[in-house]
Amino acid sequence: MSNILTILKKEFKSYFNSAIAYIFITVFLLITGWFFVSDLFLANQASLRGPLSIIPLIFIFFIPGISMRLISEERKSGTIELLVTMPVKDHEIILGKYFAALALLFAAVLSTFPYVMTISILGEVDGGVIFGQYLGMLLMGAAYLAIGTFASSMTRNQIVAFITSFLLVFIFFLIGKMLVFLPTSLVAIAEYISIDFHFENLVRGVVDSRDMIYYFSLISFFLLLSFRALGSRKWK
Amino acid sequence: MIYIENLTKLYASTPAVDDISFEVETGEILGFLGPNGAGKTTTMKMITCYMPPTHGRIKIAGYDVFTDSLEVRKRIGYLPENAPLYDDMNVLEYLKFVAELRGIRGHEKSSRMKKMIEVTALGDVLHKDIGELSKGFRQRVGLAQAMIHDPDILVLDEPTSGLDPNQIVDIRDLIRRLGEEKTVILSTHILPEVQATCDRVLIINRGKLVADGTPEELQSSFQGAEKLRVEFKAADRDAISSRLKELSQVRSVNDVSQSQQSYSAAFIVELEKGSDIREEIFRLAVQENWVLLEMYKEQASLENVFRELTV
Ligand SMILES: Nc1ncnc2c1ncn2[C@@H]1O[C@H](COP(=O)(O)OP(=O)(O)OP(=O)(O)O)[C@@H](O)[C@H]1O
Ligand SMILES: [Mg+2]
Predict the structure, then answer these.
(1) List of residues 6+ apart from B79 with CB closer than 8 A
(2) Touching check for A126 and chain B: CB below 8 Å?
(3) What are the residue ranges of helices labelled H in chain B?
(4) Contact across the interface for B100 and A81, Cβ inside 8 Å
(5) pLDDT tens-digit profile of A137-189?
(6) DSSP string spanning A85-148?
(7) Which of A81, A86, A236 sits opposite B84 (nearest CB)?
(8) How far apart are the first and last CA of chain B?
(9) Distances A43 to A64, A118, A133 between C-alpha atoms, Å
(10) Which amino acids bring their CB within 6 angstroms of ligand 1?
(11) Using the beta-carbon criterion (under 8 Å), do A82 and B100 form an inter-chain contact?
(12) Is A20 an 8 Å CB contact of chain B?
């Protein structure tokens, strides 16, 4: 447990040592801010709908950028050898790194809180809906990050990690947009697999355990794959 | 302490380490020698649990590296080849990070860190990013992290590479001191280093163990013939040479005098194995009234042994 925390702190700090954290948070705020403000003045609407419509797309591009370095950089520089020969368990390494990326995502998402304050000043705020919307953003990001962690654990090349996680994430996103082209027998399955579908549920303010289970299974599945990839050095 | 049995590592069916067996006792400093690509690093990676052997077994303090890896890793300090470290951390942050992963907490953490900074002389670069350090300082940080938890076993892959001569002396002293109670395995390409620090030497070549013994044992067992170097104050070189040749048990006499130093005449006298004629030479010199300046037995150097076994 304390090893996870030690690794988390180190990774989180190194996001801020490089420019990644600042770039991510700034660009995230600029884009969501643009959508929020244009809704406010053009549509005369004080809500999170604008930013929320663009967030799945922002995440597709940005989250692979956050997760790409997590493990591949250790492979490239050889530091992985020192890390795994210390008395640290493989799952502690994966979780420490994953939680550090998650912490950065939380920081970015929570920094949009001024929008909520603006809404509460200008109009009615439905606490339940806001909660669902934030939960939706965080869970979707968390799922993308798990996919990115897996991609990063497979290679020593950060660019390859980026492209792999981008493609994987894009597939999960695209399935939801392709429903109309699918035979009806497959729609239910595709809907269930699609990240977007569950995101839409939460964003409407409906916090359903089925959506939660979906996200947690997706996260666990890809973290488990990352764990296996890290353990592959032990194959004889 | 370390027990290795029939260790083999195959990389895609080519053996990098081929059926090696040896044991290392507590308090022993073992030097690992071998040409490039001999399999030294590969063996160390298996001892430190980075990768499993293809065949064979390694036991450290009674624990198997494969099945009880965590117990083994707690007891080992490891400096991999080229000291891979996090370039974006500064030295202090890094040592703290390692100390925490090693489970060192509170007061002990700061005292161990202080101690390591002292013995590896890192005081001046504590707040520098590791990526900005010179090679030698980087190596010292690598050594500091390997020893921070005061491990029973140290595995050091080319520990003095990149260090300046003063640091080399300091680090060798440190290794010698540690080696009194701990078990140290180090690899090196610097043969005098082995003589200066190691109790025992293993030479491996193409993955196979080709020699195992103390530096002295290896030297004497590979000595083809005894050699004496004698030097006299300038006299008739040819006369001396021919008189020396007449002595019994002399195989050959080589004139190695430096031509510009006309005041001395030096010879390498090769003898039959196991013979010693220093006394005869002394008497001869007295009898002929030659002034003897120097006389000593030449050791087969470790270099010769190494070349003999690995070329
Ligand atoms: N990851 C790898 N994949 C395939 N072959 C490898 C790998 N690592 C090492 N080898 C091979 O294994 C052999 C032993 O390499 P090793 O690094 O153990 O040598 P070494 O004795 O440490 O050499 P050096 O003195 O150059 O450090 C070499 O032939 C090397 O090419
Ligand atoms: Mg090597």
Answers:
(1) B142, B143, B145, B146, B154, B155, B156, B157, B159
(2) no
(3) 40-47, 69-75, 91-101, 106-119, 135-147, 165-178, 191-197, 215-221, 237-246, 278-288, 302-310
(4) no
(5) 899 999 999 999 999 999 999 999 999 999 999 998 888 777 778 788 878 78
(6) TSS--HHHHHHHHHHHHHHHHHHHHHTTHHHHHHHHHHS---HHHHHHHHHHHHHHHHHHHHHH
(7) A81
(8) 32
(9) 32, 15, 20
(10) B 11, 16, 34, 36-42, 81
(11) no
(12) no
Cβ-contact A88, A3 below 8 angstroms: yes
**Amino acid letter for position B227:** K
> Chain A: residue nearest B74 by CA?
A87
* Tokens linked to B34: 């071998």
Q: Chain A closest CA to B10's CA: distance in Å?
A: 9
Residue B101 has its nearest CB partner, among A79, A86, A235, at A86
Q: What angle do CA B159, B162, B165 make, to 5 degrees?
A: 95
pLDDT at A121: 82
- Enter the tokens of residue B18: 């081929």
- pTM of the predicted model as reported, rounded to 2 decimal places: 0.87
Q: What is the mean pLDDT of residues B47-62?
A: 94
Ramachandran category for residue B2: left, alpha or beta (phi over 0 → left; psi -120 to 50 → alpha): beta
How many angstroms separate the CA atoms of A204 and A200, rounded?
6
Q: Is B12 left (phi over 0), alpha (psi -120 to 50) or beta?
A: left
The partner residue sitting opposite B88, judged by closest CB among A2, A18, A78, is A18
User: Predicted ipTM?
Assistant: 0.90
In this structure, the residue with its CA closest to atom 4 of ligand 1 is B11
Query: Token pair for residue B135?
Result: 């090679």
| Tokens linked to A157 | 């090349």
Contacts 24+ apart (CB under 8 A), A215-223: A215/A139, A215/A140, A215/A142, A215/A143, A218/A143, A218/A146, A218/A147, A218/A172, A219/A142, A219/A143, A219/A146, A220/A146, A221/A146, A222/A143, A222/A146, A222/A147, A222/A149, A222/A150, A223/A94, A223/A95, A223/A98, A223/A146, A223/A149, A223/A150
